[in-house]
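Raw record, unedited: Nuclear pore complex protein
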Amino acid sequence: MSPALFSPSKFTPKRARYPPVKAASRNQQFSRENSLLMSDDDYDQKESIAGSDIFGPDDSRVMVPYGGAESGYGDSLYIGEEDEDYEEEEAIAIDEEQLGPEVDSFARYVDLYRQKPGDDGRDCALELIDGFLKDTEEHFLQAQSRTNQYTGDDDDAILEIVAETAFYKMEYETWNLVSRLLPERGVEYTHTLRTVSEYESNEVLRRQLLDESTTFRELNIIRDWLRAIAPYPEIPNEDAEDDEVMGCGHMYTLNALKQYKRDHMDPEEFVSKGPNAQFEYPERGIPSIEDKSQLISTEMDPDGPIRQERGVANGDNYYETTFYKVLWGFIRKGDFAGAAEWCRKCDQAWRAPVVLGGRDAVDWLVDEEVADDEMYDASPEQGPSGNRRRQLWRRACYALAKRNSKRPGELWERAAYGLLAGDIDSAVPACENWHDHVYTQVNALIEAEYENFLRKEGRVSAQVLKLPAPDALETFGSRNIVAKIVDSLSRPNDFRFAASPQNTALRAVQGAIISNRIPKLVNIFAFQLREFRRNPGYEPEKDTNTPVDCTDWKLLRIVTHLIILLQHLGQWPESGPDADAAQEVVAGYIRMLAAAEKYGIIPLYASRLSRDRCVEVMGEVLMHVTEEATREDIIRSFRSYELDTQATLKRTMENAFIQTEVFYKHEELPIQILSEFSIPQQDRRKVQPEDEKLIRTAEWMIHLDEMKEDLIHAGVMMFKRFYLTGRLDAARALAERIPSSYIVSGEEDENDDLPDESQGYASVYIEYEFLIEGLDALDEWNRLLAAGTATKREGGIAALRRGKFKDELQIAYENAESKLGVLVNSWLVQSQHHSDAEQVKHIRNTYVPDITIALHNIHLAAGLNLNKSYYSKCLDLAVLVANPSSGVAETFIATGRMAKYVDELANVSLLCLQAAKGASLEPTLVKPGHESKVSIWNVKPSAAPASR
């Protein structure tokens, strides 16, 4: 799965219901509506939306007209058949394999060593570094083991395993660098400088320079790190002959000399002179056995090939190249003892003192304070050790590195001497990777600064200074030298260091660490994260200014924990642009954890944010939590980390309202809402994802008693949205999952903690909830009535009136009649005086006519199936409708449905009169032409008045 900040949306209806969204790149795989990075500005808020003011084209507040042909009541907002594939969102965006197991282990260390009041931040940081280093080393070794154990032949799998191993190796190296370098920054050394006597070692001065110069100290730390992570040189051992070849030295050249001597020496002279016979080779050299046109050296003392400017026999080319390449590897590794042993093994023991010449002379008796250092092998028994003419030795190495030669291993030989001398130009050709290049330049700077210090102290003779020596300080200057090195190796068009994007990005992290520019790196990440939020089509990997990518989860983890370390060490500002950038990066990491459903560790990192930023970020994240157990865990974590739970949940609810607002347009209200209850329940409109998001978010507030008022207000707002757009199943889900009993107690004296305003809202909530109770009662009545109709069709009226059916129907009637009667008589009447009176009027106009007609039909059906006396209830209902104080007639007039109700009332009046005369009530028994006619009902209702 390619990197993405958040999960793809599964909302894919055949008919678009979402606002247009710009096509996302491969780094952005899901809609912005479901994105945790979504900005509140992503939607136009000036639409006609439930729970909001209604605005016209000129931004003036307007009212939606009611009734008449313009009202559009014939257009229902129900989802049509073509929208049935509208599915719930898929929450998981990033699987655990993308993040790696270190996400949990790093969080464990952060939690274990988080700084608490009174704790020493530095101690916490050191513990954290040790934990991170140990953890990444384990992951590297595990990945390396998987690589070694893999026996398959799947090329893709091999590449993936190798890439994983390379990443973990480089991450381990990065934390190794952090462990060495970051704790040293900001540390003030109080070493007392003293005068060093003539006979004391220069090593004493070197240590004084380490204490005195921050730059020199950091350069040495970086060089030590580069030596530590460098691999040991690969000594060839392809077959049994390799060791023999390397141990025999210039075997082919020596054999050629012997053969030439045998061929050209006078036997008689040899006999006459005996052992004292000397054979003189031509000064120009002798021809090689393999190639007669090539002359080889005739003097095999250490300086012979240099003095004669001749090479060796072709057969020794392998030996020459291998010897110098391995020698360079040992020196690059900083293993000078290993380099000396390699020289002895390869029959060039004379070179061992050369590679060991970089150690300043130490005498145990004089330099006791430094002689016990592990880098020296001095002892009282051994006596003085090291090089008393180190600067002269350095110039000799430089001269060897600069000489011209056509020998096979020349490149590696010159590079080896170049490293010893601190020369960049001669060592660079042998550098194979980015770390080699950094090492070459850092090593050169150390040598230059050390010699410069010795010169100031008068420890380099005038004769030595006359000899040429490399001086890297002339190239880099004395300021920002490490930054210059990193920049010189970080050009976008520099293809010397081809590597995977992740390794390239980790090099950038290492470069930021060694050049002390971590804030710049963090600001780059923060910029990318902000840009990604602003524009989902932004592709960080195409940003040529930097190789880092904010959608690289492992890299984001590393940078986030670097910030935490620096904060513990006191090396990160508490305010200002850098502090803001750090907050942005930590917030990005939290969003990444949320996308992977790592909710358990999110509060830990949220505690690293400022109070306002924590509320902002967690207000986005918590909307995506669906599991009740997870909610409880997060609430406990919020309390444990002392986060502002109440403010966060308020922001979460606000975000849910904002993000879902676009789905609750109500310019055109649906008509005959209750027709939903005439179809089977399984075929009705289901709760939509936006409805679920609102209810799910509101459920958070159930966990906090102090959020009772907020929950009441949010519940009223949701009920309004659902009722204004005909989402009865959503309203039912809200009533079932957050019943009023969760908010207010049935005992009045237990609600005294609620202010008067909130008590008023609570009563409105109960009224909205009561509509669902009434509709459920109506649903039950309709179900029983339908079952009775089926029974009647099969067995007649007698069958219908036998058994328990009539009793059940009577109970259902009484329940529906009582609840719907309350709804018609007083539902939301008092709320028409509130600030949202226009929306309440919308809701009453939408539902009261249908409820009234439904109650009318209940009385009618009860008269037919239970007792004829129930017909009179229809007339009683008509009296209530006609009563001006009830406001019911206004809802019929506003929606243009009074004529239909008058027709229904006329029909039931006929039945009442017929019942009073003893006429049959069964239409099938009335003969044609004998229908009852009552002239009082032969009236035409006047047209509905114009909309207000």
